[in-house]
Amino acid sequence: MDAEVDTELMQNIYSNLWRYDDKLNIVPDVATQVPTAANNGISSDGLTYTVHLKSGVKFSNGDPLTSKDVVYSWNRATALR
Fold first, then answer.
1. Rg of the chain, C-alpha, whole Å
2. pLDDT tens string for the chain (81 positions)?
3. Which pLDDT does position 63 carry in this prediction?
4. 3-state secondary structure the chain
5. How far apart are CA 65 and CA 71, in angstroms?
């Protein structure tokens, strides 16, 4: 497979913090909003993003999604590269 197909499959199978809508706008998925400077989601130096998770999001086994799960997933994804 190529990267485009891989990405599309991942977006259709897994939940993400954000996703693309039908018009290719970035919209919240398990996050409550997309961080911007206007909503204080991005620090003034652009180095820190603040993301709030929707409440009630659960894994397929019923365990709640936590911020630690998100950090672990991001760290794992970057370590694989």
1. 14
2. 577 777 777 777 778 899 988 899 999 999 999 999 999 999 999 999 999 999 999 999 999 999 999 999 889 988 876
3. 97
4. CCHHHHHHHHHHHCCCCEEECCCCCEEECCECCCCCCCCCCECCCCCCECCCECCCCECCCCCECCHHHHHHHHHHHHHCC
5. 11
Distance, CA of 41 to CA of 77 (rounded, Å): 22
Measured CA to CA, the distance from residue 30 to residue 74 in angstroms comes to 14
The pTM of the full predicted model, rounded to 2 decimals, is 0.75
Query: For residue 70, which of 21, 57, 24 has the smallest C-alpha distance?
Result: 57
List residues bridging with 1 in a β-sheet.
none
